[in-house]
Queue: 4 jobs
Job 1
Amino acid sequence: MKKIIIALVAIAAGFLGYKMMAKDECPGGKAFETVAECQASGLTADVCSTSFKTAQEKSASFKPIESMEQCQLRYPHCEQKGPTAFVPSIHKVCIVAGKPAEPLYGTLGMNIAGGH
């Protein structure tokens, strides 16, 4: 009986860990890497181009990070913005009906090397 309880706890912990790792990056909507991918999903060209433009504008107001190393500790891909500032690169754009598009910057992997 004790082994069964231990096995059930291990299964539950594994399932919970999986659910936490596989959380939806765009709740209630869909994330797209390109305008073409967005249009291929059935959304109109206007919706897709406007959404990508909105996400780019939001990303442009991102507070710069002082060094590439600090940026890469938080985001998988970074780019230089000015002589001494760095910002995360947009990985995808989240489009949810009735809401402004949001830039998605990606997440770091869960490995001991810091996800790089």
Job 2
Amino acid sequence: MANIIDISDTEAVANTALQIKGLADDFFKEYSDFFNYVEGELASAWKGSDYDAFKTHVQSQKDKYEKFKSTMEEYATVLDQAVKAHEQRVEDSKAQATQGGDVY
């Protein structure tokens, strides 16, 4: 499986989270630009019931695109949290080791 993320490489995981956030923003910008085009320039060039049906369909999909963006952002947040938790665990283990205590 080529899409496995090694959590011990926290920099790679953090970079992946940033990439996902960037992709989510890019994706939503593209959709927003398209939506604005449909309501603006296309509206002035295309009249009638076919345009109205197309515009209604595009509008009906907006919620799905917003949810998709939100899901991508949530996944990126989970990756960020995993990085922080892993780094804290490493620090806690180091502290335990230097104090001579049990390491989990």
Job 3
Amino acid sequence: MVVTNRINVSLANSQAAKFNTLSSQLQALNSSLKSINGNITHGWQAKEIVYINQAITNISKEISSLTSELNSLGKDVISVALEISREEQAKIDAAKKAAEAEAAAKAAKR
């Protein structure tokens, strides 16, 4: 049994790193957004500021949620890739062992 299409764990690690990079970029964006919100609050005294603050707070919460999801996805990608790799290796090992047993049985008959 020859397995030619095995999971590429390195590619999975690379994809997970991209998720982490995007997460970091979103965190930086969120930080900037909070800073802008503070500047608006201190520099602008109008009735509308309450609504602007609420909108920015909601956006910030969404960004935080996306950041968490990206971090989780990155970990899941690596975990699943490693699990699939272990399963593939177990199948290869089992097939090899079966082939060796079959060869030994044939040799014993001679």
Job 4
Amino acid sequence: MHFIFPKNYHFKSKLLGFIDYSTAILDIVIGLVLYFIIHLFIQELSTKIYVFITLFLPVLLFSILGINKESFISVFIYFFKFCKNQNIYLYQKQLESEKIKQSTIDNIFSTVLTFYKNIFLLL
């Protein structure tokens, strides 16, 4: 059986088929840091488990689901690049209908001005 893959398809190996290895390593690091912080302040084991699951589950779900099919790390890289270089260029695009409306408004305005100018000239 032969499969044809498109040229723009990039095969990435993933842990358990759905999470990138880099994201999994980042999750492990975040989990360990969170565990050590919880271990410093809470002594009872069941409370540690509840607090750890409550704080780590959203991070884990966010890393698995991602944002618009982008991995957890790539979103943060884009975010930090944006924070580093915040040049935002805004361009206002005018549609043809807006151009026609603007030219019609300009024509009406100029017509009204010439009308009043002619009235004042007659007086």
